[in-house]
Amino acid sequence: MILLIRLLRNINMIAKKEVAKLFFILILLFPLTGHVNGHSARQCLANIPKAHLSIHLEGSLTTKLYWKFAERNHLKIPYASRQDLKNRIENLTTLSQFLSLYYANSEALQKKQDYYELMTALLRAQHKQGVVHLEIQFDPDSHLHRGVKLNDLLDGITAAVDDFNKHTRLSVLLIPAFLRDKPQELALSTLNKLIYYAKQHAKFKAKFVAIGLDSDEKDNPPSKFYKLFELARKNNLKIIPHGGHDELAQPYISEFLINCNLISRLDHGNMASSDKQVIKRLKQCKIPLALCPISEVKIGPINNLASHPAHFFMKQGLVISINADDPAYLNADLLDNYLELSKALRLNNRDIKKLIINSFRSSLLKKTMQDKWIKEVLKSRCALTEKI
């Protein structure tokens, strides 16, 4: 790139204006991670405002925080050392392994202060990556069944968001997700408690705009939770389920799409790539996909990032966004997902900006706010050269 710039400087017959146009086109098309210092590309990306739509509170529990909370709550830690836990996280390869460790470690969260500190750490990490809008999922039933008080959970995370935003401009929406491998009756009971709490707590109510559906998809079709969906819609809550992360659950994507008005967004959905009719239906229903590339490779059915369907989905006209899912268990944050996917699929700057714009278009933000942030994205200029 530097040699090309020097060459252009010496070509007198090309007008300076035309050189500038050509240089801008090269910057736009030059791959985000190609031939530049990795740290610089990361910083460049961090400076662009982004929305992060699929991240789990519990999935942000780092080894350091787990140890802190477990010791503070006088729990018997089942790991020989912190390195032992880190090794187990590093060696995760399946969804079942991940869920087992994920829920076991969540037991360290017991008090309001634990939830407050975990949420605060999550917000700080996201803010450093240039995230300006967050939609955070959390699993209330994984805590309530252990005897955690709903008020401690919700008071803690709500207070953390409010305190953090005294000094920043990070907008946050909260999405309680229900465990699909548990009975629908449990989810209905918990949702009713959440609705009641929201009526008593205006600050939580303002952030509580949707519900999710996560955990093990196997043998847990959407039809199992239709009463839950009805209750959510009756209370003006959007529905944003996980779907199609596991190859055995691919048919469940179609079930979510029987009625175009059922869901507002689908988390993962990577298995839609194997069915042309599902892709067609996603386009007809205008359902965005919140992809989590590193998650879908490390604990999902995709072999490697080079075979991830993200670019294929873009070519098919689907609206997709890039997300981190569970950064503490995947050793990868949001920027890692953008950068690693970009490198594997040879995405260029235009592709990356499109994905970032999609993150706002796929969000639950009001359109005026979406437009505001998209203008900021379009203004950003990353001259990706070796000197950055």
From TrEMBL:
Q: Which residues form the Adenosine deaminase domain?
A: 49-378
Top-level taxonomic group: Bacteria
Q: Which cofactor does it need?
A: Zn(2+)
The UniProt entry's GO biological process terms, in alphabetical order, are: adenine catabolic process; hypoxanthine salvage; purine ribonucleoside monophosphate biosynthetic process
| UniProt entry keywords in alphabetical sequence | Hydrolase, Metal-binding, Zinc
Q: How would you classify this enzyme at the top EC level?
A: hydrolase
- For this protein, what is any one GO molecular function term? metal ion binding
SUPFAM superfamilies from the UniProt entry: Metallo-dependent hydrolases (SSF51556)
Which sequence ranges are marked TM in the entry?
A: none
| InterPro entries linked | A/AMP_deam_AS (IPR006650), A_deaminase_dom (IPR001365), Ado/ade_deaminase (IPR006330), Metal_Hydrolase (IPR032466)
Q: Name one GO cellular component term.
A: cytosol
Which named protein is this?
A: Adenosine deaminase
EC number, UniProt record: 3.5.4.2, 3.5.4.4
Does the UniProt entry include the keyword Zinc?
yes
Q: Lineage of this protein's species? A: Bacteria, Pseudomonadati, Pseudomonadota, Gammaproteobacteria, Legionellales
As for family, the record states: Belongs to the metallo-dependent hydrolases superfamily. Adenosine and AMP deaminases family.
